[in-house]
Fold:
Amino acid sequence: MAENSEYAIEMLGITKRFPGIIANDNVTIQLKKGEIHALLGENGAGKSTLMSVLFGLYQAEEGVIKKDGKEVQINNPNDANDLGIGMVHQHFKLVQCFSVLDNIILGVETVKNGFLQKDVARKKILELSEKYGLKVDPDAKIEDITVGMQQRTEILKMLYRDNEILIFDEPTAVLTPAEIDELMQIMKNLAKEGKSILFISHKLAEIMSVADRCSVLRRGKYIGTVNISETNQEELSKMMIGRDVQLVATKEDKTPGEVILHVENMTVPSKLHKNNAVKDVSFDVREGEIVCIAGIDGNGQTELVYGLSGLENITSGKITLSGKDITHASIRERSTSGMSHIPEDRHKHGLVLDYSLAYNLVLQRYFEPEFSSKFGFLKKNDINKYADKLIEQYDIRSSQGAETVTRSMSGGNQQKAIIAREIDKDPNLLIAVQPTRGLDVGAIEYIHRQLIARRDEGHAVLLVSLELEEVMSISDRILVMYEGEIVGEFDPKKTTPEELGLYMAGAKRKEVGA
Amino acid sequence: MVLLLQYTLLFASVLILVALGGCFSEHSGVINLGLEGIMVMGALGGALTLKYIDPSLPKIIIVLAVLLISVLCGAVYSMLLAFACINFKADQTLVGTALNLLAAAAATVIAKSINIIEDPNNVSSTVQYVEAKKALVVSIGKFQFNWFMLIAFLALVCAYMVLYKTRFGLRLMACGEHPQAADSVGINVYTMRWAGVLISGMLAGVGGIVYITAGVSEWKFENGVAGFGFLALAVMIFGQWKPVNIGLAALLFGFFRALSNVYSGFDFLAALNIPGSVYNMMPYIISLIVLAFTSANSRAPKAEGIPYDKGSR
Amino acid sequence: MSAEIKKTAEKESFLAKPAVQSIIASLLCIIVGLLIGYVALLFINAQGATDAIITIIKNYFTYPTKAAALKYCGNTLVKAAPLLMCALSIQFCYQAGLFNIGAAGQYVVGAGASLFCALKLGLPWHACLLAALVAGGVYGVFVGVLKAYLNVNEVISGIMLNWIGLYSVNMMLNCVKETASPYTVSLEKTNASAVLPSLGLEKLFSNNKYVTIAIPLAVIIAILLKVILSMTVFGYEIKATGIAKDAAKYSGMKEKRNVILTLFIGGALAGIGAAFLFLTGYEQWSVTQSSVPGMGFNGIAATFLGGLDPIGTIFASYFIQHITSGGSYLDKNAYPSQISDFISAIIIYLCGFVLFFKFFLNSRIVNKKNNAEGGNK
Amino acid sequence: GSKAPDASATTETSSADAKADNADASDAGEPESDIKVAMVTDYGDITDQSFNQSTYEACQAFCDENKLGFTYYKPEGDSTAERVAQIDKAVADGYNVIVMPGYAFAEAIVETAEMYPDVKFVALDVSEFDLEGESSDFNSETYPNVFSAVYQEELPGYMAGYAAVKMGFTKLGFLGGMAVPAVIRYGYGFVQGADAAAKETGASVELNYAYGNQFYGDADITAAMDTWYQGGTEVVFACGGGIFTSAGEAAAKANGKVIGVDVDQAATIDGKFGKGMTVTSAMKGLKATVNTLLTAIVGGKWDEYAGKISNLGLVSGDDTSLNYVGLPEETTLWNDTFKKEDYLKLVADMANGTIKVSNDTNAEKPSAENIKINYQGNIK
Ligand SMILES: Nc1ncnc2c1ncn2[C@@H]1O[C@H](COP(=O)(O)OP(=O)(O)OP(=O)(O)O)[C@@H](O)[C@H]1O
Ligand SMILES: Nc1ncnc2c1ncn2[C@@H]1O[C@H](COP(=O)(O)OP(=O)(O)OP(=O)(O)O)[C@@H](O)[C@H]1O
Ligand SMILES: [Mg+2]
Ligand SMILES: [Mg+2]
Structure:
């Protein structure tokens, strides 16, 4: 009696517990055939967990999953695969040293006499890539290609397996605006082909533009499902957070003061290629302004920040911080001279993941007399007290307070911890690199407010962001980077995203006097 | 000259086999520090086979029997590693070290017990196999060809093919690089790691018997395999976890090892009057220097040493 | 809440302490290891097995007189001290994310330096100790520099340097060996001032002349390391560098310097370990040894049995030495002397399961707690 | 295999010191059960195919025959402290005769002999200089309960070297185990013998000289031996435990010859590598000594040995069966240029002092006048 059910997938009453937390509490979502169904929720709301249950990575304690109206058991990714379910994970599951092709065929290889038949696979991949407009080089190594291309690889992985149900867990968090547009188009194409898509994103605009329906989770609980055509961003964010959220940051006008950061003809070599990643760049950041470096990922922003923070040596140029030449200063010196740095990669640089939250909160200050005695002993009590203060002040949520191992905290809260640490140092210059990446709107709102507060207190903020919306809403001045150079300087009030986009893509440039 | 070649190939064969063993294990994500111990166990199995087999059997049968039993012993012993490290997420360095200590002790205890059973007055841990051992070598002129040289070469070719050309190899390496990714495409990481460790056991087991039969016709198991397992590990890292490079590294290392033993046959070397100790140190010093220049971009399998936990991401 | 529930709750929280769990786990390893050893003994010779296992456990208590027992208790301690130092060396580096298999070689050069200073240069014990410290440390620095600046895997360079160290020390000590034997000349006779002082400690051990301040010093060093690792800025940095090199760099720690410094300290610990043995006169160096002394490798075992904790390692080192010494009193006609090595190897193997055991214990506790809470609701 | 070369000599042998008394063991006053013999090994095990093993086998055979309690102890490691520990343990376990093979026991004797005046210590290879240092004034009162036998290994070494060159070999090799005193003495004797013979025959003789640095063979040492044999070496004196395996292995490939050590190894070596490989063996009478001493102890004649250190070598120039060192008369491959008679004459000359052999153990790296020595140090 498997009369054609309206739903491709139904997850009914799913409950999934982790030690100390109910990640999904009786959640129900139903995915119609051929629809794009968005899943929305704060960080840690349980979206990834729910999808992992669907994909067979976790087993739910309670609840049933139905495919085409029939109850199914999904005990592992193989089962999911057999049912035609594919997933693009939040953190890509790609083998870095394999080629695109190897990654795509992994697990479903064609073999003849025990040997891989890569040519057959290559043909199929090129066909798929043609059909859906997913441009990839099958023989490039993952470690050498852009994040966008990696994502296309992930999508091809699903298509290669002829999956009918596609799960995208925060696919846009790591993409450039252009790539996002591209992805949106691809998703629409896929839906048109009859595939059913589950789509997780924190970006309401995206959801509004591609999704047909949206289900909302809050703290593990199912809140409801709405038709996108019948709702708006404000309503969605209210459903998700439980209160009104200010989606666009507001700030008072302010006249910039003294120069805090002065960069002159800075050049930074690249680790990836022979050319310099940053070429002869000069600019200033003043008291009471937020300067934003905009640009498409991979145009030297990362290296620019490495050069400023001392993670990378610069080959030429001069950096001055509050009048002090720090061109050759060590990382520690820069930090103690009043520079704070919210790093791009919070897991690699920002945190010692196996340390407690308290220890991480003093990562930049543990050596100060406040936290260690003359004889080199840590003042544990003071550290804990300080941590408790920051936790309270910045609302960092974790299961065991200051004692929590940071690895077990949610990404949003990890980010909050870093921000708390860096801001509480009271720096003259705060360098924030993509501080809101992957965070929910509530958290973004919070972080934006913090950045603006720094500015309002008369300090300098250098923000590096890939998101035009963010750039436009909080910066006082925008510098666009393209291929290692600053190709334009803008006042956000006097420009449009379209104009910025042209500069970011390298189609236009104007000379900038530093 | 012939001798230098012969012993270079002989030592290289041992190193190739064992290093390839390490290579399979590490590509699956398990660091196998217990190679030394596995060698001892493989050697014990092979030595006992040689001891008890009828030396008048056709040579090929003897060679195959020895090969089979060493493979088996190595594989069985490596299960201890697989079991602890894969299923119970034990620390791989620790278990590897324990296996080395255990093998040295166990092999001696076993060899002694067997000897005592045969002859209560024979309390030695020596296993003798003079007659049967002759089956392992063929003299080609002055050059003594050892069948295991061929086996090592074949192992090298196979390892290359398996790792780079087959489904198994692709999946194995995925488990050592990114087990979560492998898991998410339905590959059973535990099974693949077991396979990797078992293969490493097989190869190291053969390496063990090759080592102890390389020069003599009896072996005293108290002496273990004198650090060869660790050398093989060095060769593996030196060879950047790639079969072809491992082959070359093993040859280089084997060459210096052989040279330190046969240098007196070269008049110009003998004339230099360099102390023997210097020759003995040579292989280590040379590889250290080479490593210093080549390691900058060295990359171990990313996930090696980290127990795979389905839950973590 | 009834008193009973409270009591079980207390018990659980006691069991939930990591230190308690480590101890229970280590004890479990020991018990299971001894059991397996017993089974092996039964296999080899069923009659004497019980006696044999008791002999191993009794070690010096097998001597009939208290005086002799004390004396040989001293011997066990004398050997446990260097073992502890090697274990600490490996552990310290392990905390910093480095597997210092080179401890064996650092031990060797420590022995070489201390004996050379004592026998050839006639220096007093403190100078010899210092020489061992520096030699071991510098030898560790080789590994560190190769690692920090040239990305050479520390396991490999460690193994290579072990051998290089062995041959070099053999050559170096050739000048202070006895004319008619491969041993270095007697420390006591050649340079009594180089023998570590005992401060009267030997009186506690039936005048065992090998009992010196090395033993208490080793324990003190262990405690010191515990303090350094868990309570100081330096420990904080070292561990951060070990767990997250990039984060350490980001926070301004000098991660290269830390790697090198860690290996210096690790090497120094192993070097001192050697001095702790050779400067008692307990052992003479044999310049013809062709394999690296096992002390450094055994340290790996002791560290893990000690739950990667300096204090635990004190007990673990003692225990391993205890059963090793005990094994030498086995009836050699019935059992191969390697059986005690066999038992310690089994115990070390079982240490691998400690993590799982702790996990098991924890999940039991959590389950119980959940059940209890569920019941209360 | 004829493991006990001078077994014939053994049972009835009386050492130089014991010559006067040839009393039978059976009329001993004490009951047999009072005597319990313990052997303590040095750094090797009783399986070293050398010192420890020969001693062990001799003790065990004797004790079995005479129904004496016997066991052996193996120290935990290679140190005086650990050897003392086992001696203490043996005494504590009620053993009153301690047999200790190896010069390494000197210190241990110094530490324990006085402590246990009622225990009889039988040491092998421990010289007075080992005990007392260079300026020894050793006398029978120094250690009244210790007897030590030191062998003049240089003598059989000399005989072997002399024989080899006389037999016509011109390219020799000496492969020592480790450079320990006994091995060094063998080697130095070997060089002197070859040197003397070369002087007589006028042949130009070359001698490769190296230590394996271990008492067992392996691929490395076989490789070195292959180099020797294939480089023209005709005969190698494999001097140390099981190291002959490497020499034999290499010799077999090149039709080379081997000289055995300690006991008549002809059967062992030939059995493994083919008939006629073993030219001769440089032997010393370990078993004889053990038997003599234990017989004396059982027979209540300990006093004749107590407190003494005997230099065991040649006793008689005529009756070789009385000697503690020599070449095997049965299995040596005598030929026209070196007949058994020549050997007997050599022994006589050595016994009467016509031929003097130096036992300088400092000569780890020996030199000679008439032959060319290629010293190669340690192979490993
Ligand atoms: N393996 C795990 N063990 C324990 N707790 C977990 C585990 N995985 C997830 N959690 C917890 O479950 C909750 C939900 O996590 P989930 O990953 O589903 O959140 P999310 O909605 O995807 O968040 P984000 O927007 O940050 O991706 C979190 O509180 C998290 O701490
Ligand atoms: N082993 C674990 N134990 C407890 N919680 C875990 C564990 N692994 C993951 N989590 C939790 O699962 C949640 C989701 O993890 P995920 O890696 O998806 O991070 P995230 O919150 O989405 O971060 P990001 O924003 O960087 O993507 C996090 O809240 C994290 O705390
Ligand atoms: Mg998520
Ligand atoms: Mg996220």
Q: What stands out?
A: Residues A 43, 90, 170, 411, 438 surround magnesium ion (ligand 4) (CB under 6 Å).
